[in-house]
Amino acid sequence: MSVLVLGHKNPDTDSIVSAISYAHVLKGRGIDAKAVAQGTPAPESEFVLQKFGLTAPEVVNSVKDKEIYLVDYSDLAQAPEDIKDAKILGIVDHHKLGDLTTDTPLEAWLQPYGCSNTIIKLIADYYKVEIPANIAGAMLCAILSDTVLFKSPTCTPFDKKAAEELAKIAGVSDLNALGMEMFKAKSNLNASPRDLIFRDFKDFDMGGKKIGIGQLELISLDMISATLKQELQDELNKVKGEGRHSALLVLTDIMKEGSELLLCSDDENTILTALKGQKSDKIWLDGVMSRKKQVVPPLQGAFKA
Ligand SMILES: [Mn+2]
Q1: Ligand 1 mean position, distance from CA 1 (Å)
Q2: What is the pTM of this model?
């Protein structure tokens, strides 16, 4: 039986591609591994898979009695419901350390880099596993996506170096052009307000409060009409009502390098203070591009029990 390589819920490009690239590296190490995912690819990931001729990982919702490697998360809230009945063999991640625990020793590769695929490139180099051109191209896209074309404050020199090396393997010469093509695919708003909110959405436990944060990265926020914005706010209010203390939607403008915040919360003031946002006709967070580095940590701090 193959071991499974599995990213987080509401998979983004890094999560989908990490499963594929890490399964490849594990195979190179003699481990029979299979990439799976907790959902179908979003438009950006679909573009990446198609561009480099890769197949979407099979969707898996249960991991009971399976041996698994986790990529791009270590939070229980991001894992399948029955993860406690699985054997976790290893983790590759670049987020804050989550609340998963294991019964047995595991292999953990955690680094504060901009992308899980940057870490996977280092693991491939460490074990001298060659990366084929198509997987290298997808890994490059994951780095460009997670670091927002190297503009996010999460980006490190390791991400740039890995991206350059992967671009060489993939035969990509213009990283910026590839990135813009990918973000154009990502800026697809042709979905229901609910699907847009949940396209890249994560629930966090902050001092016992369930706080859900979605993010949409767009080439320009001018793409969002006043009507759509109102529909997103109405839907967000419903999402908050589904057992959450707060629901946030971070609308990131890639070119302006900042985000507009939509919010529904039992305690708006604490959130606005933590994020240094001011409520006027809209909440603009200048320079905020990264949920994991600029949104989650101040909120965790504000809601610490
Ligand atoms: Mn990631």
Answers
A1: 27
A2: 0.90
